[in-house]
Amino acid sequence: MAGEPQDDCLFCKIVAGHVPATIVRETDTTVAFRDINPQAPTHILVIPKVHYPDAASLGAGDPRSAADVLRTIGEVAEEEKLESYRTVFNTGSGAGQTVFHAHAHVLGGRGLEWPPG
């Protein structure tokens, strides 16, 4: 069920503390942690603590948590002293999503070209 922790979800396991992660910020509704395969000098994932498979379903099912993810992105960028950064939500395997728990990638610390690829 949407919003409920999923036993087979890596990010739900991080939220529950069952899988270790380098957490840089945690709020009542979000967790931000360093990506284990960084694509930029700063690469942090920001996730809601509730389980939704992607950003669109999170926005439709729990707009407050979606807003909290966006707020946390800004707080993380400020804490990391990023003057410029990119935020990416991948939706679906064709777009590169590999963990089907809504999450934002916060990338910075180097020039980021456009279009991204």
From TrEMBL:
Gene3D superfamilies: HIT-like. The active site is at H103 (tele-amp-histidine intermediate). One of its GO terms (molecular function) is catalytic activity. Transmembrane segments: none annotated. A motif (Histidine triad motif) lies at residues 101-105. CDD domains: PKCI_related (cd01276). InterPro entries: Histidine_triad_HIT, HIT-like, HIT-like_sf. Residues 10-117 form the HIT domain. This is Histidine triad nucleotide-binding protein. It comes from Streptomyces monashensis.
